[in-house]
What does this fold into?
Amino acid sequence: MITTTNITELRKIRATLPAPVGLVPTMGYLHEGHLSLVRRASQECRSVIVSIFVNPTQFGPNEDFARYPRDIPQDLQLLEKENVDVVWTPTPEIMYPSGFQTWVSVEEITKTLEGKMRPGHFRGVTTIVSKLFNATQPNRAYFGQKDAQQALVIRQMTEDLNFPVEIVICPTIREPDGLAMSSRNVYLNPAERKAATVLWRALYTARQAYENGERNAKTLREIMLDILNKEPLAQVQYVSCADIHTLLEWEDQIQGMALLSMAVLIGKTRLIDNIVLGGTLSQ
Ligand code: PAF
It folds into this structure.
């Protein structure tokens, strides 16, 4: 496994890699969710690059950039075991040198859900992912369904800007009690960790209602809200039942595929989760 920070060196190494090349972009502090993306990339590609970069431009001024968990030595150990070919760990100075002034933004589908709650977040994500694509020139790039809107925004950007990259969306990996794996779960104290299962319980119950024939979006949102509101440590930011293509709320009956999603504060930790009804996002 080759590890490099330098972008020129990365490009030289990239030129020697047998295709197809798979990229797994991460912010590090890797868990089973990330490793599932790496394993999928290894199955489908002859070479695998993992990038580790905590991207400052996708964090708002009052968000957790400074305290976002980081552990590069542990990440490298995990990736070594997965037979990754290259790990790229650029610095903020490399990705955003002084004078940097070019941004990539996707318009409509960034206006709702996470985009509405976190202004500027997706502009940071699409800009850094464009830069990661340009530097690593992958044939395929792997993202988790856990960040469903992010994956859809990146897919839109890739199509709109004609990046020759196939976007692969992989299923959310959950703890045995249903909590979606996330680097931010480390912030939860034991009582909060227990309370955090409420997101999955809300999604699961709404899915059961859908499977029993419920198609009314308002009812599905209410089912989720009822469960979330019963958890004293949970503070709901949004609960959504949206059209998977536009990410606008279904107002009445769901007509096609729906993304059920939510953002919930458990104590001070902001967690997100989602499921898809009527089809699948992940391949
Ligand atoms: O999902 C993440 O870890 C990040 O948003 C990504 C895609 C690596 C961009 O910084």
Remarks:
- The CA atoms of residues 3 and 87 lie 5 Å apart.
- The longest strand covers residues 234-243.
- The domain at 2-170 is CATH 3.40.50.620 (Rossmann fold).
